[in-house]
From TrEMBL:
Protein name per the record: Transposase
Pfam families given in the database record: HTH_Tnp_1 (PF01527)
Source domain of life: Bacteria
Biological process according to GO: DNA transposition
UniProt xrefs under InterPro entries: Homeodomain-like_sf (IPR009057), Transposase_8 (IPR002514)
Annotated organism of origin: Candidatus Viridilinea mediisalina
MF annotations from Gene Ontology: DNA binding; transposase activity
Lineage, broadest ranks: Bacteria, Bacillati, Chloroflexota, Chloroflexia, Chloroflexales
Amino acid sequence: MKTSYTSAFKAQFMLELLKETKSITQLASEHGVAPTVLREWKQAALTGMPDLFVRRNSVTELKTAHERELEPIPFK
């Protein structure tokens, strides 16, 4: 059975990993998570980090975009 971890749990790991006081192997051993899983989380965190600093659209723009997505696609 595949274990599912919360985003808060993953974020806590990344904070600890970015401190560089312990290796991925040490953290994996302490918390019972495979080192390959932690490497994947780290890569995802580093890849997604630039998006944290992107200015978000206004609520009105988001509503309009969402409404466009909900519109039915006409058949030809």
